[in-house]
From TrEMBL:
This is Glutathione S-transferase. PANTHER family: MALEYLACETOACETATE ISOMERASE. It holds the Pfam family GST_C_2. The lineage of its organism: Bacteria, Pseudomonadati, Pseudomonadota, Betaproteobacteria, Burkholderiales. It comes from Massilia yuzhufengensis. Residues 83-204 form the GST C-terminal domain.
Amino acid sequence: MKLIGSVTSPYVRKVRVVMAEKKLDFTLVLENVWAPETTIQAVNPLGKIPCLVMEDGSTLYDSRVIVEYLDTLTPVCKLLPTIKRERTEVKVWEALADGVIDAAITVFLERRERPPEQQSAKWIERQMGKVHAGLRVMSDKLGESPHCMGVHYTLADVAVGCTLGWLALRFPEIDWRGEYPNLARLFDKLSERASFRDTVPFAA
């Protein structure tokens, strides 16, 4: 399998962490979807990463679709529960974590792509409100549990860890560590795992 993505994207990192936890072999093909010469639409008409190209040439896109498929390939480190209610709760965690990133990336791109005089302060405020609300709910839901779903490591932890890691990279001014020490404890615990150590994002 080939995973098309970048070393910065939190969505790509989520897939990479899952593949590492599942011990799946793949090749990471770096792609800058913002470059004029990008060919991403040849495999994903939406022009987004990650995109998983499988052995038969077929493709999967959207990180949530990809990781759900990957979890079916091997029983090693099952990340999605089989019980429907628990499985749905994990997916809610994933949607929450991805939603925080969706909003934060909107702000990041607004600031990067538009000159200051063209940026919408109202739009930025609205999106940052989503980021802070999402972090607050993640902290409330986590409570004092060792993992998002209690004692078991799941895809929920992967999604939250990737979100926090990206915020630390792109929005260091957000003091989620100081405001939500339980999220900091979870993130530090996750950062000890090889799958997280080997996929730390860096600015590109």
